[in-house]
Amino acid sequence: MKGTDPRILALELSAAQGSVALLSGEQIAARLPCPAEGRGESRLFHSLEELFRTAGWTIADLDLVAAGRGPGSYTGTRLAVTVAHFLCAPHGVRVYYLSSAEAVALAAAAETGVREVMVVGDARRRTAWCGRFLCEPEGLPRLVDGWRLVPLREFPSAVEGGATLVSPDWPRLQRQLLEIGITPPPVRFQRPQAVWLGRTALRRLAAGWPSDPREPLYLHPPVSVVGGPGQ
Fold first, then answer.
1. Are residues 122 and 87 part of one domain?
2. Who is most buried in 32, 60, 175, 192, counting CB within 10 A?
């Protein structure tokens, strides 16, 4: 580490309203929104330049880059994990990949005091993704039962069990449930935030947890096209 508190860059682009942040330990050094409009590599690098200028840091000052891998926008998460890798490589900075939903669960647990959180999101194709987390004594949310994809018509039964429900996609999910005649349960709207992503990565490292794979967390199986030209 380059100082007493590790310096972390966090990239969170899994939702329509993304963000980037610099942290010294768990304290915020600088943060910026990274909205969906024009979200491409050039827009992200422009935001990063402003972020580092605000904090007075350079990439070489970093100890870690944390990238959110979803579930969520495949384009956004792919951009986050790709840019994290290529930012770190020339400077020998460690890169750490983790679920965006895990950071959402940690934020919800910290802000509400609950121990069990289920994060749900819009998986498109009239389905929702669900992940149930238990907050560990060291302050880390642990995914239990794995990720699940559920048809929207089965959503009420899929989220039963007493966990506090949170979602980065709740306005959209709520509308879709109402359209098919289902009364939505109480759900806390919670956007993924780069600050909480960085804090989650730091706590995972302190607990000895390894990085997730360097790829977006995409829950749908691949779609293949049969009978195209030449087949």
1. no
2. 192
Burial (CB count <10 Å: 0-12, 13-18, 19+), residue 37:
exposed
pTM, two decimal places:
0.91
1 has pLDDT over 80? no
Q: How far apart are CA 6 and CA 20, in angstroms?
A: 17
pLDDT of 20 above 50: yes
φ/ψ (deg, to 5) at 185: -75, 170
**In-domain check, residue 74:** yes
* DSSP structure class, residue 136: -
89 & 132 share domain? no
> In terms of DSSP bridges, do strands 17-24 and 7-12 run parallel, antiparallel, or are they unpaired?
antiparallel
Same domain as 89, residue 115: no
pLDDT (tens digit, 9 = 90+) per residue, 40-83? 677 898 999 999 999 999 999 999 999 999 999 989 999 999 99
**Strand, helix or coil at 40?**
coil
pLDDT higher than threshold 60 for residue 230: no
Are 180 and 79 within one domain? no
Placement of tokens 């121990």 in the chain = 115
